[in-house]
Amino acid sequence: MNEIAFLILAAGKGKRMKSSLPKVLHKICGKTMLSYVLDAVKPFGCDIGIVIGFNGDLVRKEIGEGPFYITQPKQAGTGDAVRVAKDFWQRYNNVVVLAGDVPFLSSDTLKRLIESHLQEDNVITLITAFLDTPTGYGRIVRDEKGNIVKIVEEKDASYKEKEIREVNAGVYCFDTGFLKENIDRLVSDNAQGEYYLTDLVKIAVLNSLKIGSISVEDNFEIMGINDRKALAEAEREYRRRINERLMLEKGVTIIDPQMTYISPDAEIGKDTVIYPMVFIEGRSVIGEGCIIGPNVRIVNSFIGNNVVIRENVVIEGSRIGDGCEVGPFAYLRPETILDESAYVGKFVEVKKSFIGKGSKVPHLSYIGDATIGERVNVGAGTITCNYDGVKKNPTFIEDDVFIGSDTMLVAPVRIGRGAFTGAGSVITKDVPPESLAIARAKQVNIEGWAKKRRGGEEKKNG
Q1: What is the mean pLDDT of residues 269-293?
Q2: Residue 192 Cα distances to 82, 143, 187, 203, angstroms
Q3: More exposed terminus of the chain, fewer Cβ within 10 Å: N or C?
Q4: Is 308 in contact with 323 (CB distance < 8 Å)?
Q5: Can you tell me the distance from the alpha carbon of 151 to that of 178, in angstroms, rounded to the nearest whole number?
């Protein structure tokens, strides 16, 4: 029999969320609540069970393979959720039960819980906290010796019990032998009409069995999310902590932390400066000495060292080399790669393309499905015409090429090394190296044409 497993309760609808999503799939700083809980338990390398219910298929789809999924047909309380998962947890000596809507519990706190449980040989060990305003939480009731005698839920608490500041965090470590013997003894004679997992404490007390507890050092760890207001409060506080850590521990300058939104999975190097209204999402990595201008969004991208991202830029799924400059008003779509010292300027969109070392696309251009060599200059208004109505086609621009302004490159096409294209050209054929390609109609000047046209209009209107 294995020593320990984790069981995450994630079946609730969260009526106060007023949402079609399961509560645990609502996001904080870009990540679902459930994903935070999984991040906390994964370092232990133990089996994980997830109890699902309301729109459970969405939970499966979001989390994917790995955990064991157990369906709770009817959401009838935490005790019922653990009962329906009996086939999962009875294979282990102990099981840690967590709530999927308490996202900030740390691995260190879980480690302390498990160690205390095993060392003290308890049948139940739970996590508590002392709150100045304990409204909404179950209260920990102790006897004169300090032993836990029961946990009373808010709706069932007396006036005196509601004054207790020590609260239940909703996280437990159970001896599964005790759990197996008693989980079916729970009853639903309470204000909620539900099966409370906390009633197992009462059963353990009546049988003179050992109950232990640990307290969290940071009450933020046990914050539960029950409505949109709490979700926003959690987002604000967690974002503050992310930004504070980056400033104090990583040497990042954040000009206005309250107006900067950074994923907990992002990495940012020292001496990088981040301006207000920046969103850095997913597993983005930003190097040292960068400048990230205002109104920038970076999603799952790698940014090298000493990169300048000017204002109003969107970067998604891209890789930017050292010393590059992007923007303002540029859009780098997924699978874009800029080599060292490349420049993508204002009102430029790049999609699934490679732009070589020292090359420039300064303004007003679309580059799609293209491979651009080193030291290339792409003139204003250039478009790679990559879609023929059926499929996307590639464009290849070799080293040291000069693309004239307003050039249409009709893919598939290759511009050879050192070649030039004339401004306004529509290039439909490969251009040999060191050549000049001009593909536009010859200019014709018809003298007096405008005067004659105006004269005709005057007679018509006369």
Answers
A1: 98
A2: 17, 26, 11, 19
A3: C
A4: no
A5: 18
Q: pLDDT band for position 155 (50/70/90)?
A: confident
In this prediction, residue 192 carries a pLDDT of 79
Instruction: Identify which of 348, 349, 401 has the alpha carbon closest to the alpha carbon of residue 377.
Output: 401
Cβ proximity of 438 and 421 under 8 Å: yes
Question: For residue 292, what are the β-bridge partners?
Answer: 274, 309
State the DSSP H helix or E strand holding residue 301, giving kind and residue range, or none if neither. Answer: none
- Would you say 75 and 12 are in contact if contact means Cβ atoms under 8 Å apart? yes
| Model pLDDT, residue 460 | 62
Average pLDDT of the chain, as a whole number: 95
Residue type, 99: A
| 319-320: strand order across its sheet | 267-268, 285-286, 302-303, 319-320, 337-338, 354-355, 370-372, 395-397, 413-415
Asked if 356 and 370 count as a contact pair (C-beta separation under 8 A), the reply is no
Give the helix ranges, DSSP H, for 127-211.
Answer: 159-162, 176-182, 199-206
DSSP string, 184-199: GG----STT-S--TTH
Tens of pLDDT along 35-47? Answer: 999 999 999 999 9
Eight-class DSSP state of 255: S
Q: Is the pLDDT of residue 406 over 60?
A: yes
In this predicted structure, what is the pLDDT of residue 462?
59
Cα distance between residue 83 and residue 179, in whole Å: 9
Please, what are the domains in the chain?
2-222 (3.90.550.10), 250-437 (2.160.10.10)
Residue 193 falls in which region: left (phi positive, over 0), alpha (psi -120 to 50) or beta: left
Distance CA 110, CA 221 (A): 11
Other Cβ atoms less than 10 A from the Cβ of 34: the count is 24
- Could you give the CA distance from residue 12 to residue 176 in angstroms, rounded to a whole number? 24
The sign of the torsion formed by the CA atoms of 198, 186, 23, 266 equals: positive
Greatest alpha-carbon pair distance for the chain in Å reads 112
Catalytic residues: 363
- The pLDDT tens digits for 330-341 are 999 999 999 999
Going by C-alpha positions, the residue among 160, 118, 124 that lies closest to residue 139 is 160
Token reading at 392:
């996307």
